[in-house]
Queue: 2 jobs
Job 1
Amino acid sequence: MKYPLIATAIIAASMAMPAMADRVASELIKPIEPAVITEPAKAELGKKLFFDPRLSRSGFISCNSCHNLSMGGSDNLPTSIGHNWQEGPINSPTVLNSSLSVAQFWDGRAANLQEQAGGPIANPMEMASSHVLAIDVLRSIPQYRQEFAAIYGTEDITIDHVTDAIAVFEETLVTPNSRFDLWLKGDDSALNTQELAGYNKFKEIGCTACHNGPAAGGTSFQRMGVVEPYVTDNPAEGRVSVTGDDRDRFNFKVPTLRNVELTYPYFHDGAYWELEKAVDVMARLQLGRQLSDEEIGNITAFLKTLTGEQPSFAMPILPPSTNATPRPVPFEKN
Amino acid sequence: MKYPLIATAIIAASMAMPAMADRVASELIKPIEPAVITEPAKAELGKKLFFDPRLSRSGFISCNSCHNLSMGGSDNLPTSIGHNWQEGPINSPTVLNSSLSVAQFWDGRAANLQEQAGGPIANPMEMASSHVLAIDVLRSIPQYRQEFAAIYGTEDITIDHVTDAIAVFEETLVTPNSRFDLWLKGDDSALNTQELAGYNKFKEIGCTACHNGPAAGGTSFQRMGVVEPYVTDNPAEGRVSVTGDDRDRFNFKVPTLRNVELTYPYFHDGAYWELEKAVDVMARLQLGRQLSDEEIGNITAFLKTLTGEQPSFAMPILPPSTNATPRPVPFEKN
């Protein structure tokens, strides 16, 4: 009597959601799963650091300034505003789902989020501090010392602790339960006819060759301008600056399409504000396809189904500086 | 049998907290009460607007940039960083408990929070937008249109709607239940001996003449430098710029001492970073008193008991721009 009952249960389950296993297995874009937070205290500390402008020389710029979690984890500017209003060299990628990328930065020069986090702090074009100064600031603040000690077992804060905590916070910034993911998991009503037509066209013309995986991108470096060259006045050369291999010239990390509705303007130079135009450019330059307005509209409608649940959390309250805290230098005096 | 029972209950209640009515009635600093939110949808819309950098020309500066709710509602800079990294003329006052002030800005040129909110948006030194442009941005975003329509009964958004919503959000930004307030309400254990000594000295030398009411300030305009002149290279002249009355020269709104631990640096020019030094300067210049280091330490300890519960809320998620949204101008091109 035992085996038949189990078999019946399995059959019933598979009849209840027949498409689930199929789509998750067969489609090249995979669902995003909610973050499993195994180190909540560390993530909470990382959140404070992510929002703390005292990691910048001016005391004005935090990670959240250019990776604004109210705005899709981006700044919605072509290139970012750095220390002293310097114009950044490249579009700020979204921090959302960045843990799912093969590497960090457009040229992949950081292997992971921890390595990435140290960059902007010390970049004179961005936060314009130094790791030494940032650590001096944090060490001067008793509440930070206590939090680091509770997590890392020492009040002797290092930059590795700082970037580790920020990275652990950033790993929580995933956006599950987009309508597309609901559809992937078997909910046929999650996409309408236009969106489904857009997705089918997206696959048919080959977009999933690069935009695949849970992030619908971030899994490889690809040439920007395969069939036709990409015209830009942005001097970035992409992956070659890391590898030194001339074959990597103009190769950039494929950006995630998750939340692409929120992360305008598009491409490494932030030159395109309209998602429809970005779709048109990609189809022509990468795939040699001239799409009709209807096809572009359909693909754009599909892309908007990739907007997931945005991270929701309480604004962190930062511990105050003390008389011993190195003071910010917002303006350079003569 | 009825009256005696009620009388017993009243006596029991008054014995349980004998100091409560006394201190609340007799002390010049009054407790801060929690915000009563009567228009939650409007406050939520105001929160979005408070955090939305698209109200600035650059798309980078929001109300929260200079009134950072992670940092005591201030930017912890002597003067603020405005559009194109312009140096602001005066220290940004905290937005916390600002609804309790007699007027807004150091010179009181805005009668209330709504009037204040329109200022920085259009100030070329600050957010450098215009009311027309800011409204065009908001009208181009369907989710904002819907929210305004649900609250104000029209999609025809005006600057008055915008500043009203921001003001209603700001009215929620009070900080009740500081240790000092617990003491005011009868909890003798809320202050230690040093803090109580500091408070008694604070009263004895006359600080409460100006720093009174629930915000411990914000109730009047007073001359900066009564007994001795205040030496500064900041050109602000205070209240005279509003009234034209020469007797108001160097009169400034008395700042709140609520959360003063978090709102360094101090005074309208932000020239003093250490609370102890600010106490020393105030005692000498305003009251002609040279305090000992111990007295300064005690008053400083008391002042830190004015740190209340910081507003806690979820980071707002802002609705995305559309193809019709006027684009930000972060950098002026030739």
Note: Chain A has a mean pLDDT of 94.
Job 2
Amino acid sequence: MNLILLAPEALESDRLARVTDPRRLRHLREVHRARPGDRLTLGIMEGGIGQGELLTLDDHEATFALDALDQPPPPALPVHLVLALPRPRMLARTLEHVTALGVKQITLLHTRRVEKSYWMSPELEPEKIHRHLELGLEQARDTRLPAVTLEKGFRPFLEDRLPGLLAGRRGLLAHPGMAAACPRGIETPTLLLVGPEGGFIPWEVEKLLEAGCEGIHLGPRILRVETAVTALLARLF
Amino acid sequence: MNLILLAPEALESDRLARVTDPRRLRHLREVHRARPGDRLTLGIMEGGIGQGELLTLDDHEATFALDALDQPPPPALPVHLVLALPRPRMLARTLEHVTALGVKQITLLHTRRVEKSYWMSPELEPEKIHRHLELGLEQARDTRLPAVTLEKGFRPFLEDRLPGLLAGRRGLLAHPGMAAACPRGIETPTLLLVGPEGGFIPWEVEKLLEAGCEGIHLGPRILRVETAVTALLARLF
């Protein structure tokens, strides 16, 4: 937690914030070992970042005297990430990684090789997803929450959603064996599609290429989804 | 497990292998749901890769009829990674990520902000480390095991080991706030140094720069060690 993220209702005034949620209080006590007088970095959800002084800390709340929270959050990556739904534990970690890296639009997609049971996981409950996004923001000192969309059918996604997503974006389909190496250091708005463990099936690859995506690869090594997504984002942007 | 890694003693002959370790047998049964007749990818530790046919599978062993295991493993990255020892769970995952990405030399280093208790973790036992390296190799279909060295003192590392490691290698110190952005797509032999959560202390940064390392950064976002290491390797190579 490199930033204490304040919901707007945590602000008692421009200059006073009150944090009551148990996870952050525990982190302040046990990891930061914070004491009144310590200066810490805070940010308002969807807003600015700055410093504050810890005034009080007990088991139920922490209060902070705030400086102006007027620094902007770090820039976002110009990417909409479409990720075949990973298994639950991998999903949790991947949401944290990509949020910390600055992704702001995430679509979780069903594909042939996604196990249907993954869609029943409690990790997909909005509060669970929100929590992983918050952890990513707090890690990277960001305040802007990514939007996460669930697409439970591949064909409706392909036919109804993909054309709109590709308008004004370069579509990149990351898949082993594609012809082109992943490009480096691009700044173009991008739609990045990443398959599940085991990959997209050939029919899905064919349809995504027909829809206008370019196939790219990361080399001969087969990577876990969380490793591959981080590597793709770091190489692309 | 995209490759079944065979210790040399698993080879009964050029053409017959016997796998007995419980983890791989369980994976074959429960994840691959393998049956006699299935063709799978196998590799010999430090050797070649090829296909084999599963002949028998029960609770105690699997036997394979091997084709020629004559494909080379994928190329290694030209990097020696020096990583401040992360906390145990992060260490486990980071070893898997970097092994899958193709790192072959890893030094785990003590720095001021590494908690001393981490050096007592069972994750540092050679068999535990070996297991994480194997998982990384099996993920990426590689057979060449990274060498892992433990350096429990920063000053002895700095004075006795670093000059040798920098001979013939470009030293890159990844640290927030350094002047240069992480370079992209280099092919030079590299020594990459990555600090702990909380970073190197200023004195350590100063000494590493004095020793000839170049400071590089990944931008304004503070990343977890496992995310940062993957991002650095993907951007550098």
Note: Chain B is about 30% helix and 25% strand.
